[in-house]
Amino acid sequence: QAQLVESGGGLVQPGGSLRLSCAASGSAFPINTIYWYRQASGKEREWVATIQGGGTLYADSVKGRFTISRDSPKKMVWYLEMNNLKPEDTAVYYCTTTGSSWGQGTQVTVSS
Question: What would the pLDDT profile of 35-65 be if each residue is shown by its tens digit?
Answer without folding.
Answer: 999 999 999 999 999 999 879 999 999 999 9
